[in-house]
Amino acid sequence: MIGVLWAAAMLLGAAGLGKLLQPRPSARAVVAAELPAASLLSARPVVRVVGAAEVAITAWVLFGGGTLPAALLAIAYLALTMVAARMLRFAKGQNCGCFGTASEPISLMHGIVNGAGVLVGAGAALLPTAFSDVPSVPQALSDDAVQAVLLVAMAAVLCSLCYLGMTALPALLALRAKVTAAR
Predict the structure, then answer these.
(1) CB-based contacts of 30-36 (< 8 A; 24+ apart in sequence)
(2) CA distance 92 to 170
(3) What mean pLDDT is predicted for residues 107-120?
(4) Please, are residues 47 and 23 in contact by the beta-carbon 8 Å criterion?
(5) pTM of this prediction?
(6) How far apart are the C-alpha atoms of 14 and 145, rounded to whole Å?
(7) Is there a contact between 7 and 158 (Cβ–Cβ < 8 Å)?
(8) What is the pLDDT of residues 19-30, one digit of tens each?
């Protein structure tokens, strides 16, 4: 189960890095979601601070380990789940800005992936023995380097699949719908 937690952390880190480098798409998404205090939350420095926090949580989960960073991961994903739900309600089809680009329309997959992140983080925080007592990557490497390298690789693959599910899959399904409608 620890590999799933690491994958969730990696995905959050990728989103945080995107917000740090390109805050504008995320800022537009906050406005489109009609969040309370959207004018404050959509300010580029605020978006960058959120991105930095996501990167920090990722680093803490991966390199510090423990239940507290897992709980923070769950809280971060809970916030993202709530934003995704609001966007699906108020701005369906709008770019989510998750990864700092303007080509990620909000979809149900965002809610599913973010909801899974909540469950994984909360599970690691509340049931640490199910997650091998939530070790960090360096701890896992010192325990069994080969197993840890394979686990990190598998977590990276899962992270990539979730990323593609949030970015490429909605676009692919939209194209499929256009082709089907044209028949």
Answers:
(1) 30/83, 30/97, 32/87, 32/90, 32/91, 32/94, 33/83, 33/86, 33/87, 33/90, 33/91, 34/86, 34/90, 34/91, 35/83, 35/86
(2) 12
(3) 94
(4) yes
(5) 0.91
(6) 25
(7) yes
(8) 999 999 999 999
Contacts of residue 124, defined as CB under 8 A and 6 or more positions apart, other chains included, come to: 1, 2, 5, 67, 70, 73, 74, 130, 131, 134
**Rg, C-alpha atoms of the chain:** 17
- Residue 180 CA to its chain's centroid (Å): 31
Q: What is the pLDDT of residues 33-85, one digit of tens each?
A: 888 898 899 999 999 999 999 999 999 999 999 999 999 999 999 999 999 99
CA angle, 80 as apex, 30 and 94 as ends, to 5°? 45
Task: Give the C-alpha separation, 42 to 102, whole Å.
Answer: 15
3 state SS of 151: helix
Residue 120's identity, in one-letter code, is: V
Place of tokens 């700092």: 100
CA distance 10 to 99: 12
